[in-house]
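Onboarding guide, step 5: your first structure request.
Type a short instruction followed by the sequence, for example:

Predict the 3D structure of this protein.
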Amino acid sequence: MDQIYIYEVGPRDGWQNVAELISTEEKKKIIDGLADAGVSHIQICSFVSPRAIPQMRDAKEVAKYCVSRYPNIDLLALVPNLRGAKDAQEAEIRHLSYVVSLSESHNKANINRTREESLQELENIMEAYPDLNICVDIATAFGCPFEGKPKEGELAKFAEQVYGMGIREICLCDTIGAANPRQVREEIRRVEKTCPELELMVHIHDTRGMGLACTLAAAEAGVTKVQSTLGGLGGCPFAPGASGNTATEDLVYMFQNMGYDTGIDFGRLLKLSKYQKSVIQGNYSGHHMMIQMMQEYGEKGDGQICTAR
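The system replies with structure tokens like these:
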């Protein structure tokens, strides 16, 4: 079977905009549930100022817990700057995501820097911590709330610039859910033609219900790493009304029924998604009909969601 590697980014991207503070123990419990379901790539937090994102106030504690408990899981964290990279290094997180927007306007609004200032900070991080594995997340890769759709070749040109800095992995992020499957395939082809040795990942939002279709388009174009969040929790703060990310359980259901190997227990994941929705109030994508259907027809996992620790 073809292999698809699903990167669960809910503990960072899904939780960061939840208004009510999630307890550290609840975070650990849900991460335990992800691990029990067979999720082997998890973005567990972002190392940012708690004044900017209060939900990440316990990032160091969560990271310490995960590093000690899950040595065989690929643990990731997002960092916005050199200070964040230092915190990640001290927490023994070696796989980092660093965000730069393709759109100059969005980069300024999102992290209050010009794009070149962001690239300079990336260079500072790479010089200070050469052993870290850094994936550059290119936000607004398929559309920007301020500038619209990028010009043809603009994404490939920027990917080439990042590659020239020494980065060997990038994630193409559909930050506001503006992409369509044809656009995804075409942009991936352009990037691969420009930088054939660059490893690609995609992160597709489900604002317009295109999350599954666009992620599948990326997989059919040869991308084997895809990001999603449990329950589709999350959404871009610069896209009012956005319905969140693509739901991990929807991706697992689709890929497994198409014959792809995800290594994830769908039944356990579905139960965990329902549990998360019962304890965390947030902006979920429209996967709830599938949960209802699976319950009605009695499809069950072969174990508990979260075991006692």
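Each response can be followed by summary notes, for example: The radius of gyration is 18 Å.
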